[in-house]
Amino acid sequence: MARGRFISFEGIDGAGKSSQIAATLALLQARGIVVEQSREPGGTPVGERLRELLLHEPMDLETEAILMFAARREHLAARIEPALAAGRWVVCDRFSDATFAYQVGGRGLARAKFDVLEAWVHPGFQPDLTLLFDLPPEIAAARVASTGADPDRFEREQRDFFVRVREAYLERARMAPQRIRVLDANRAPELIRADIERIVAALVGA
Fold it and tell me: What is the pLDDT of residues 93-113, one digit of tens each?
């Protein structure tokens, strides 16, 4: 049985990932691919409990990074790796690129500490494809505010924080241009969807 593929969606809060994740799931299912949807932090009972702490409880930066990777280790062991080994595809809202962007770029975690955690938790493993939704922070903030939802502690950060997060995401994309495809998220949803369909179709064909 062929191993499944792993697709991650990345971008700052308000970049519009959610609706495009749903469209991508429908696209893959229409092609006869068995696919699972997940998210980070989360994806497992342990991960979801850690998610609540991470999104709502103030904590030391290094504690935050370690908990992100702890949730990821459980996610890999309990959900991602078994699904891929069984030939199922996994579409995930965020993975380690988000930790690089938010904790290293946004909060200032030492890059060397991130590298150690990444090498420990998933050595040599990355998504087969990462779709990075790139959007100016001020537009993303307006989108988040328009939902009327109660913001978590990351969403309450100031614009400068999201400028750093965006820059870190783009740096990560420059480091892995074959894996990370940058999408201009400041466009009509149907145009973004067309780009995703083309990119994902190429992965399916491969």
Answer: 999 999 999 999 999 999 999
Do β-strands 6-11 and 89-93 pair in parallel, antiparallel, or remain unpaired?
parallel
Is 113 known as a binding-site position? no
Instruction: Calculate what percentage of the chain has a pLDDT beyond 90.
Output: 87
| 11 labelled binding-site residue | yes
Beta bridge partners of 83: none
Parent domain of 161: 6-36+81-106+122-205
Flag whether 16 is marked binding: yes
The model's pLDDT over 37-85, given as tens digits with 9 standing for 90+, comes to 999 999 999 999 999 999 999 999 999 999 999 999 999 999 999 999 9
Q: Cα-Cα-Cα-Cα dihedral of 185, 150, 23, 26, to 10°?
A: 160
How many other CB atoms are there within 10 angstroms of residue 177's CB atom?
A: 9
| CATH number of the domain enclosing 87 | 3.40.50.300
Q: Which residue has the tokens 């199922």?
A: 88
Does 42 count as an annotated binding residue?
A: no
- 17 marked as binding residue: yes
Known binding residue 18? Answer is yes
